[in-house]
Amino acid sequence: MGVLFKQYLSGDKIYTCSQCKTHCTDHGQLISKAFQGRHGRAYLFSDVVNVTLGPREDRMLITGLHTVCDCYCITCNSVLGWKYEVAYEESQKYKEGKFILEKAKVQKEGSW
Amino acid sequence: MAPPHPLAVCNGSSGPQQTLGSRGLVNRTEYIRVLEQALRALGYDSVAEALEHASGIVQQPQQAAAFRQAVLFGSYDEALQLLPSVAADDGVMDRARFLLLRQKYLEGVQQGRTAEALQVLRQQLQPLRVQQQVLHSLAALLLQSGTGSGAMAGVSAAQLEQGRAVLLDELQESLMPSLLIPERRLEELVEQALVTQLERSRYHNSLHTRLSLFSDYQAGAEQLPTQPNQVLEDHSSEVWCISFSQDGCWAASASKDGSALLWAVTAGERLENPRVLLRQPVPCQLVAFSPDSQLVLTASLDSVVRLHDVQSSKLLRSFPQGREAGVVAISWFPCSRQFLVATHKLLAVYGTQQAGAAPQRRLPSCHAFVYDAVVLGGCIISVGQDRQVAFSRLSDQRVEHILESGTVTSLHLSPCHRFLTTNLASNCVHLWQLPPGLGGQALAGDGAAANGHAAGSSDTLVQQCQGLAAGSSDPFDELPSAPLHEYRMADARPGRYVLRSCVGGATSGFVACGAEDCLLRIWSRVSGEQLACLSGPAGCVNAVAWHPRNPSLIACASDDSTIRTWLAPAAQRGRLG
């Protein structure tokens, strides 16, 4: 489908997709490690690259009702997590526009 | 002492109205004076004089005419005497004096009258308080000519005349234009009007335009290539790149099915006779023709760059880049004997005739990761993950940056080397205007001759001096800080693929780019508006190429495994050149 454009991140602490090693995000974008995804622990990041977003859907999560879009790795199309589009409770508004990546789906590049 | 006001010299200020033209912008006196100058320039002196008698308006006052004559005949002393009466104010008189004396000195040197020239230098130029550097370089010319005396002696009358005409143009800045009308003023005004008409017509795309003074130039949309011409289905998978050779006789395409095809462009503007350049199990990403159209490079996903001959379509050399390298760009130097291969971390220069497979030269890259690179003369333009477009000059290692607003996925240089388009990941294209002379001289050591500094040649002598006085500026200091235009594709969502745009058309007047929504858009380079939106491909349009010699032909490579071409309707009806 055309030549995929893969962005590369510079820095020492990079998270990559566990299946295809495409760069996803950087340690500097990490906001919190205390989240629960569908398959265990998940991290909250402010910005992620090399992902495409699926359609918006409303989901009832542990913290309440949210509108989210699933994120897919552009190279291997595996679901890495989701992006918060709208949060319906005031205390959850800080998550809007940020990404959740599941710990099982990403790995650290190199040893750090 | 201020010179007399020109209108006080001429009469005829009462009577007929003072402004002409439908908008009342043209001053009648000026109009008649310019007409008189044009008549004299055409050789009709008697007609000009008759006009002066009849209208009562002289072209220029006596002292201005005398000054002009003095300069053109080379009697510089007389010109110096007349200077105070024609100069605009005292401030510029020094500069005018310097120019006159310099020309006198140079002519003396050229004609071998060195004693006279020395006298000018010592007694007349010295007291003018000119910069020491300039005086020294003028003196150096005297020494140079002394040694190569043979070549100095014969300076033809035509060259003298030319030099004096150039001097008059330079002096214009110091003189009041109302006293001494700039040379060829009417022709200059008419040409300005014609150029404006050309620029105003958004669709202007023909090589041979006949501009007439009788009616305004109108170019219609039939000059844009919007009529589908061919659909070539010779590839079995997505086509990723397409390119025309500089001489316009060949086209090459690279595809995901691992093959690169070489097409011949016929006189009937059709791409025919595909020959296989390359067939590999891994997709072929890039093709690039050399500037002399004899060689073509292909790059595949197995990180091997291959060199092929165009006429025989045979493989000449291969340059493997290392297993996980990933070639992002290949680009030729203007000499057609060296090319640049850019991988994610490295820019390397190779020669076509080199012995081994190692690069001739490895260049430091200022980006952590390189996304695209292109060669412009002696300068390399590269773009990387830090959103900077870096210009690095090979001769002195100078590097300058332009900051882009988003991540750049690909670069394209226009054939005239004046414009650069950058494709952003946010689905838009930016057009940047590059300062002239950015490429500069070619790479040292490739045998190309440098700019003519041959000592002993008489006309470069004058050129050298004129360059010294003017002070040349480095184009690297004049890089733009903002793009000229931003062209948006319909989709606002960030795109996933690398799309290649191009600049083309008769005067590089158009920017074309394909998009993921399967449409090919053409924008005007001058005004920035979208002129055409072509449909036809059934997949993402990956690359677009505009024919460099024939502005009515455009081709695109698409994900539906086709290469499509479009022609301009005016060309199909045989009206365009």
From TrEMBL, chain A:
<dbReference type="Pfam" id="PF03226">
    <property type="entry name" value="Yippee-Mis18"/>
</dbReference>
<keyword id="KW-0862">Zinc</keyword>
<dbReference type="InterPro" id="IPR004910">
    <property type="entry name" value="Yippee/Mis18/Cereblon"/>
</dbReference>
<dbReference type="InterPro" id="IPR039058">
    <property type="entry name" value="Yippee_fam"/>
</dbReference>
<dbReference type="GO" id="GO:0046872">
    <property type="term" value="F:metal ion binding"/>
</dbReference>
<keyword id="KW-0479">Metal-binding</keyword>
<dbReference type="InterPro" id="IPR034751">
    <property type="entry name" value="Yippee"/>
</dbReference>
<comment type="similarity">
    <text>Belongs to the yippee family.</text>
</comment>
<protein>
    <recommendedName>
        <fullName>Protein yippee-like</fullName>
    </recommendedName>
</protein>
<feature type="domain" description="Yippee">
    <location>
        <begin position="13"/>
        <end position="110"/>
    </location>
</feature>
